[in-house]
Amino acid sequence: MDPFLHLVERKLDEAERASVFRGLAGAGKPLVLKDLDGVPPELRAGYLML
Hints:
Distance between the termini: 24 Å
Oligomer: single chain
Strand content: under 5%
Largest sheet: none
Order of helices and strands: HH
Radius of gyration: 15 Å
Mean pLDDT: 86
């Protein structure tokens, strides 16, 4: 695994344990993507599923 990726994962885990992500606007709601022109075609399905 890439060391940078490991660092990011660790920081995200720490932030989640510290409840940093609680109470964010739009939490638990689907993303509203208005325009997918800037997203490569092979990634659009994944963006829509998010």
